Amino acid sequence: MTQSLREALDSGRFVITSEIGPPKGTNIARMLHHIDLLKDKVDALNVTDHQSSVMRFPSIGGCLAIKERGGEPILQMTCRDRNRLALQAELLLAYTRGIRNVLCLTGDAIPVGDHKQARGVFDLDSSQLLHTIRLMESGKDLGGNDLDGAVEFCAGAIVTPEAKPLEPQLARFEKKVEAGAEFFQTQAIYDLENFTRFMEFARQFRVKVLAGIILLVSARMARYMNDNVPGVLVPQNLIDELASAPKGEALSRGIEIAGRMIATLRKDAICDGVHVMAIGRE
Amino acid sequence: MKSITRSKPFDEMKKCLGRFDRIFVIGCGTCATMTRTGGIEEVAEMIAHLQEWGKIVTGSTVIPTACDEMTGAAMAENGQAIRDAICILVMSCALGVQKTAQYINKPVIPALDTLFIGIEESPGIFREACDQCGECVLGETAGICPITACHKGLINGPCGGTNNGKCEVDKERDCAWTLIYQLLEKQGRLDLMKKYQPPRNFHVAPRPRLIRVTNHQSPVEGQ
Ligand code: SF4
Ligand code: SF4
Questions:
Q1: Which residue segments constitute the domains of chain B, with CATH numbers given?
Q2: Fewer CB within 10 Å, N side or C side of chain B?
Q3: Which domains does chain A have, with CATH numbers?
Q4: pLDDT band, residue B217 (cuts 50/70/90)
Q5: What is the least distance, in Å, from the CA of A28 to any CA of chain B?
Q6: CB distance from A86 to chain B under 8 Å?
Q7: How confident is the model over B172-178, as a mean pLDDT?
Q8: Confidence (pLDDT) at B223
């Protein structure tokens, strides 16, 4: 990878990011295999941070592995598990190890995960974390002290274009832009008309938006996502399309749908790129 | 304001009581009576259980308000029965337990878990309303407390988990920030949704918090 994520975003070309989910345990062979498969096909790779509040190998560990293997990592940081001291310290570590991209998230709630009795920290939220990064770039920490060596990051955040109701999310989006987000990766989108409307709003701001793409592998999965994943809406026509696929071909039909969506997003320049989440089927 | 409590599971209580076989029981006539965890009836039930477990109950009382000076007076009144007991089982919120412990040099065992400070929404429904955070933001959140009503205690607006106006942790519970947005919209104050709130000060009143109220000024911190 020769180009940084920021350079790629600034170049104006259609940017592609994907993500790596670290393992639960020390057996990292599969994660490394996924990194090797993807690192040269995309502009940058996110590493999830205890996604869905499930304890795993840390994001920073995955990012270091990507870096070592010549890829461009995006460090996902949630505010659920660390207070402001630990978050700032990790930013210092990340910077010294050449990690230049951070995705700031508030984090899923503790009860959805696998350590239900844990304490959720939420000392900061995603907007405050973005703010913290910009502050640390100016050479100060949150306590108002001088840093001996500042940081510099391409900082991003997430947005849910299909949230119901949408307006509160849009207000939050603006707040994240204000706090210093330069790029957004969205929750999975499937309805391009809705998404185009969202982009009309987002285009008022000087930020890059990468549309979230999650491969649908079956009609059942699509229905499950509609019922259980906040802010995801798979339109009925796509569900029908998956359901009509001959036995054993739903997956390839899903790939076809995702490919078609990405092609339209790119051709019509609806957004600045895509963030492809393959959930273990890369 | 009510201190909301729940009875501890019997197994846990039994373990706490251990070999203490002579027990004095204290209930509370205020919050614990409202929540039916430490009123006259519950104290009577508890006594029956204790006796079933082979304990001797030396006496009992339901103090009108277990968290204030009345506790001292009530305990003096029951002096003999309390002296006869090896431990005191308190069926009030933790404030009453602590108050009791100040008056006696014997083991004081809580029979209840104190959950939160709540208000009675409708008969029998108590809702957590305030976490005493020390920096009240209600003026900017349309009177809904984001610290307690939002699962994550967020002060900068909704997380991405909002689903049809419900919270990601529970489809039955309203997302606090959806409600705040709707109320601010009605009040024509939506600009507040875009106001950045800096990280909270978790040290507004350093623990242990102590306030002295004087006649001529607002309460001051410390002794
Ligand atoms: S913001 Fe909430 S927790 Fe803080 S003082 Fe006000 S009501 Fe209580
Ligand atoms: S869904 Fe709403 S109430 Fe629940 S944690 Fe997110 S912002 Fe808070």
A1: 2-116 (3.40.50.2300), 130-194 (no CATH)
A2: C
A3: 5-215+269-277 (3.20.20.220)
A4: low
A5: 29
A6: no
A7: 95
A8: 43
